Amino acid sequence: MSDFDAIDSLLDAVGPQAELPPCHVRRELRERARLSKAQVARALGVSPSTLSGWESGRDPAGEIRTKYAYLLDGLNAKLATETETETETETAPAAEQPVTSGTASTATPLSSPDLGQDEEGDDVELLVAPEPCVLCGRPAGQRVAGFAQHLTPADCRPTATGAPAAPPAGQPTAHTSKAPLRTTRPAPETERSKGPARPAFQETSGPVDLIREAVQGALAEHRGDVDAATAALVKRAIPDAMRLLDETRKGARYDMIAHPWIPDILKKQTARGADQIWEARPKWTRHELPPGRHQVTALDINGAYLSALKTHLPLGQLEHSTSLAHDRRRSGVHLITPPAWEHEAVLPNPLGQRDEPGPLWVTEPTLRLLLRLSGPKHQLCEPPQIHESYTSGATENLLEKFRIALKDARDTAIEQGDKVTLEYVKAMYSKFVSTMGESNYNRELYRPDWMHLIRSQAFANLWLKALKAHDEGLAVVRAMGTDELHVIGDWRRAFAEGRAVTEVKVKDTYTAGTDDAEHEGEGE
Fold it and tell me: Which residues, including other chains, have CB under 8 Å from residue 487's CB and lie 6 or more apart?
């Protein structure tokens, strides 16, 4: 988001906002109208989980609030009309029941002196041939006050396009008590910034198709301009990622809580500060290289955050525990005293560069990595000491369908040279991870614990690649962030080369170290 976009967002939030009914009324209106969350969410351009939030305590803002208020007001008016009509129908004599459009095509027109009247005194004329209803555009068998229209809301349904048909030129729209007016509709689209030409996500055969449809829609909207389409897709990557998550969660075995209670250790201490969780980000460079001059290869780890989506994530609200034992069926954050690390000369500390001694809060991936390194297979350190934890029941497959959908789309984009989809997918998973904590850009998911766990898993994955290189006889020179590993030696015997998430690619090569002759001269 540019500076001007951020300012526009602030300006949109200033000023009077559309009134919304209480949360329970919003849900009641939708349920009485027999509309699913998915239907309403699709019409508003949000995800079903966002709509759930609006029906349970949160409020939308800006233009989407205006649209939501307009929808609720329309539902309220339509449901009120149906209730009124049902009441009148139950109390009216059988002889005064209005003739519906279902029998209008066979009815004989009444002579002009004998025109029928509805309950409000408007003239009702039966038509020989149906005419378009001025309210919904579908065939109607009656005229009311000179205008063709249905007499009951049940018959007056929207057209296939979802919009009422316009009356003939110069002909006013008839309004009777049968069809009360809605409140003022928001400004026409020409007065606002134009959105996508069509919804980014439509009913398709699978999650990967959602991504393809979004890309095709953006390219069509921007007339094939690759740069403009890419920019538009990246800009909406966060809500699109949430819609994709909702799609991949259909029929899921596990339910998750999107806005649980969060302990204070996971909350920012100041507005611009950080919380108390240590992610163990590696930032390590080898102090001394082996003697001689060496060619160093800087390897780039592909899709680091995408691969890290496969990690043990807590499903529900975190619960406090003072147990000293680790429960592998649960996941969360832990206060530990880390073990001493005695291999700094050849391998980075699994905790990253930490200057402060003593206990610290770490995530599940960091704790599991330390426990693994302290086990009988590696025996590189002592086990960490656990003091207390905040955990919940966990699964490693919570985001697996989401990850696979993004991975498949990424693989196809690379194979086809599709830079638009590649950048779009990258923005979706990277922004998804970075905004699920305390972020104003993603109000649908508030899981700072997940954000820390996924990041830490990416760091742990890089550390394990450094260990693999070391075990294969390579000299590890540097490990930085999530995707940068520098090594000396034939790295291809340890890693496959390519652009897949299971492969690595060369970022750079350079020469480091000193000649043996220089060392001999220094010794003399």
Answer: 296, 297, 299, 469, 474, 475, 476, 477
Pairing of strands 475-480, 360-363: unpaired
- Give 508's strand partners: 298
Q: Nearest Cα to 331, choosing from 319, 347, 343?
A: 319
**What is the DSSP annotation of 443-474?**
-S---HHHHHHHHHHHHHHHHHHHHHHHHTTP
* DSSP strand pairing (360-363 vs 277-278): parallel
DSSP letter at 131 equals E
Amino acid residing at 391: T
C-alpha to C-alpha distance for 295 and 288, rounded to whole angstroms: 15
Please tell me the predicted confidence (pLDDT) of residue 435.
94
Distance CA 242, CA 443 (A): 10
Residue 325 tokens read as 């034992």
Q: Any alpha helices (H) in 120-252, and if so which ranges?
A: 207-221, 226-235, 237-248
CA distances from 506 to 298, 482, 497, 510 (A): 6, 15, 8, 11
Residue 212 is predicted with a pLDDT of 93
Residues 410, 425: contact at Cβ < 8 Å? yes
Closest C-alpha to 210, from 2, 421, 502, 523: 421
Three-state SS sequence of 242-281? HHHHHHHCCCCCCCCCCCCCCCHHHCCCCCCCCCCEECCC
pTM: 0.64
**pLDDT at residue 150 greater than cutoff 60:** yes
Instruction: pLDDT band for 12, please (50, 70, 90 cuts).
Output: low
Please provide the distance, in angstroms rounded to a whole number, between the alpha carbons at the two ends of the chain.
Answer: 60
For the beta sheet containing 123-132, the strands, ordered from the edge strand earlier in sequence to the opposite edge, are 116-117, 123-132, 139-144, 147-148
> Could you give the 3-state DSSP secondary structure of residue 231?
helix
Cα dist. 42→37, 160, 195 in Å? 8, 16, 14
Question: 453: number of CA atoms within 13 Å, CB side?
Answer: 26
Type of residue found at 108: T
Distance CA 407, CA 405 (A): 5
